Amino acid sequence: MIEIWAGSARDVHPPLYYELLHVWMKLFGNSVVAIRSLSTVAGVLIIPLGYLIVKKIAGNRAAIFASFVLALAPFLVRYSQEARMYGLLGLFLLLALYATTEIAQRPKRTWPYILYTLSIAAGLYTHYFTVLAVLAFWLYFVLLEKPSKWQIGKSVWLSLQWWLANLAALVLFLPWVPNLIAQLRRGQGLSWLPAATIQTLPDTVWQFFSFTDGRALFTLIYWLAPILVIAAGVYIWLRDKGEGKLARLLVIYSFLPIALGLLVSIKKPIFHERYFAFAAIGIYLIVVIAIEWLAGKRQWLFIVLAVGLLLVECIGLRNVYSQANHQMSTVMNMLNQGYQSGDKLIAGELYVYFDGSYYNNSGQTILLYTAGMPPNGYGESGLLYNKNVYLDSYTTVLAGSRVWLIGKTGQHSYYNQIPATWKQLQENSAGYSEVRLYQVQ
């Protein structure tokens, strides 16, 4: 586990997800199902938490509806089936959101502050965008009362318990801060992200609800989705008359991180939809509450709107599974079956190397082709910084060798740079994964 901590320090993310996954694999094995099930469990636990939060705000009917919406939400389903930290981050921050609702309603109790502290600390150790959720919680309590009523010890954000809860979360995170500073100085891992444009927001909303590129639709429909989501947030903000104004908390929690991410990304790109999976959960709940309050006692209207939303999500689920076309396991099975003792295995790019290594049962180590530009050992290549797996040139492969080159379908530089002395014997592809077998003359 110390190696995971050190390896994460060379990456761009904090270590908690990887540490938990390590323990999870010790308990349940390293099969694909076992590895991905940690994210699945997190995604399942999000459903009852969403139910509890919506029940506080809009009652039982809306809470039951919210459970179905969260269970079918294509964006959540996608990241509940992937071995990444975004589902776990959603769970931690939803726990923090639930704790905040308890603090808002009954600020004298102790356990919600403890839950808040642990959830925020866990979130910080999972993904740095937890800071955006913390800002949302602070803003909510500042806005909850008029400035004329701010009083030390009476206003939550001026209370000793609230400050201690946040300071405790910070103290728990302090051991990682030197690594965070080093990662920020390197500034690595975000260079591939594009700057935010006017279309980033509608693109994000379409990803959340249908997991598709909305730009293929008519312009009016494309822009209608974000307009309706924003309108739902404004509507429940204005309609919120409940204790603690919890609907307003949900709006701030969901909209503020996305807004800040978009603003920063105009100059320094940091925005990707999956980084805001936690905010997506809040947006689903906002739409549910808006439907509940808009329909009121008109059962027919509630059914029409609810069915309409669930149908959109079902289309999104179809998109999720239709896009799941990686199939590296199929390609590597072909390699494993055709492997002969002494064969060389080469991956054309870094992520292909990672995927291929997991499915490699040949007993032969896969080499990573670098074209003379080996990774620097930070970011994604942090896992390889102390391993001798780099192949700088194809010309170093001895004549008479058989070589399996693992890559992706299409035209790529690692295919174009194959020497003329390499005779291709076969080519196998599945989805967008591919392996080619060569005989070196």
Model description:
The chain contains 18 helices and six strands. It is of the alpha/beta class. It has two domains: 2-322, no CATH class; 328-440. Strands 3-2-1-4-6-5 form a six-stranded mixed β-sheet. The longest helix is centred in the N-terminal third of the chain and has 27 residues, at 32-58. It starts with a helix and ends with a strand. The mean pLDDT is 94.
Mean residue pLDDT: 94
Distance between the termini: 45 Å
From the alpha carbons, calculate the radius of gyration and give it in angstroms.
Answer: 25 Å
Which structural class do you get from the secondary structure elements? alpha/beta
Please state the overall shape, judged from the principal axes of the Cα atoms. globular
Q: Major sheet: size, sense and barrel closure?
A: 6 strands, mixed
Report the count of strand segments: 6
Number of helices: 18
Regions with pLDDT < 50 over 5+ consecutive residues? none
Question: How many domains is the backbone divided into?
Answer: 2
Q: Tell me what portion of residues adopts beta-strand conformation.
A: 5-15%
The SSE string, one letter per element, is HHHHHHHHHHHHHHHHEHEEEHEE
Strand line-up in the sheet with most strands: 3-2-1-4-6-5
Q: What fraction, in percent, of the residue positions are helical?
A: 55-70%
